[in-house]
Amino acid sequence: MNTWLFGYGSLVWRPNFPYLKRRIATIDGWSRRFWQGSTDHRGVPGAPGRVVTLVKDRRAVCRGCAYSIEDVARETVFGYLDIREKGGYSLEEVDITFPDEGGKVVKGLIYIAGPENPDWLGDASLDDIAHQICLSRGPSGANDQYVIELARALDEIGAEDEHVLGVSNRVLGLSSTNQA
Ligand code: BEZ
Q1: Could you tell me the pTM of the whole model?
Q2: In contact, 170 and 126? CB cutoff 8 Å
Q3: Which one, of 129, 38, 136, lies nearest residue 84 by Cα?
Q4: Which residues, other chains included, contact 22 with Cβ-Cβ below 8 Å and sequence gap of 6+?
Q5: Catalytic one among 85, 116, 156, 162?
Q6: 180: CA distance to ligand 1 center in Å?
Q7: Is 85 a catalytic residue?
Q8: Closest among 54, 40, 45 to 141, alpha carbons compared
Q9: Ligand 1 mean position to 9 CA, how many Å?
Q10: Is the pLDDT of residue 178 over 80?
Q11: Ligand 1 pocket, 89 CB below 6 A?
């Protein structure tokens, strides 16, 4: 049996691994939040950026992309992602729904970073989150570019995410103020 991996952050626009199928998908009971600190990609130790994780939210539905990974590639793909996403993330099993396939549900995996991990930053106002993002940069580039890529990729798959839009609009506003 192949493995489904649900992506809600950078995996939506940059999977960078071989997969058999990519499908727009949703998971129930989770919200995407810029609550995870990034000290290895979009920030550095002592000056973390902010990247998305998922938090439990009973009434929420999170839209993203699901990738079907072939059994023979499983070890290589998850070995690669476990290193790439090592900053506090671990795998958890979820039910993944395919809205375009009559609501079909399959078991799959998500990478999630919770409050117990050392890079966790947690809640803050949208203004504070946007300010921190605009000041942050790490080995994978500027934190504001991550936000802009994510907002663009979510728009492409028809995901309306109020939190991401709130942060990305503020980031765009701050970037244009800084360039003026
Ligand atoms: C994702 O896009 O699903 C993802 C986000 C953060 C870490 C690992 C995966």
Answers
A1: 0.95
A2: yes
A3: 38
A4: 15, 65, 66, 67, 68
A5: 85
A6: 34
A7: yes
A8: 40
A9: 5
A10: no
A11: yes
